[in-house]
Amino acid sequence: MGRKWNNIKEKKASKDANTSRVYSKFALEIYVVAKQGEPDPEANQALKFVLERAKTYNVPRNIIDRAIEKAKGGAEENYAELRYEGFGPSGSMIIVDALTNNVNRTASNVRAAFGKNGGNMGVSGSVSYMFDSTAVIGIEGKSEEEVLEILMEADVDARDILEEDDTVIVYAEPDQFHAVQEAFKSAGINEFAVAELSMLPQNEVTLDADAQAQFEKLIDALEDLEDVQRVYHNVDLGE
Length: 239
Fold this sequence. Notes:
Blueprint: H1 2-16, H2 19-36, H3 45-56, H4 61-72, E1 80-87, E2 93-100, H5 103-116, E3 120-122, E4 131-140, H6 144-153, E5 160-164, E6 167-172, H7 177-186, E7 194-201, H8 209-223, E8 228-233
Antiparallel strand pairs: 1-2, 1-3, 2-8, 4-6, 4-7, 5-6
């Protein structure tokens, strides 16, 4: 699973390069999740998860508070959660998650991004069966053996534990996300290099230089769309 973490790091670095876009996407996600449930993260596990993710991207507190206050205010904006699946150059596979208040607009924009950048939309299920929903939690300052001991003491299961670039990455079932985090917090670890529920590919593909350049244009075009929250793929982007 090591390469998969490198792809997550690449996505984070790309998003970190455009912080205003990152912050606006988090603000929308926090608003929607807080509006759907309680605006209190202790009573709303989905909101708690989003806030944990926001911390790893250094989203400012004022942006978080503003989104939660907006949800408390009972704004009447309604958003749908959508997932699109498609193919990029050389058979690469892509999953696009979106939040939108205009389904037709979002579908049209996503389809256009695929079509203009060497890809094409697929039907529901055409790609996702090749990915696994996975909790990915990374910490620094501990060895792989120390992390394993922490999880064993907390009686928490993990799919895999890997040490990469001074970061220990725990891959676990999605329903173990909070259990893994709580195990770390009980051990005095409150900062996470990554805290994601991700769609990880079962197998990755390597593209030639031309196909990879086209693929990266496609990913950029999708991530630039206002309604798109996350993009997952199966391409090995290298170091």
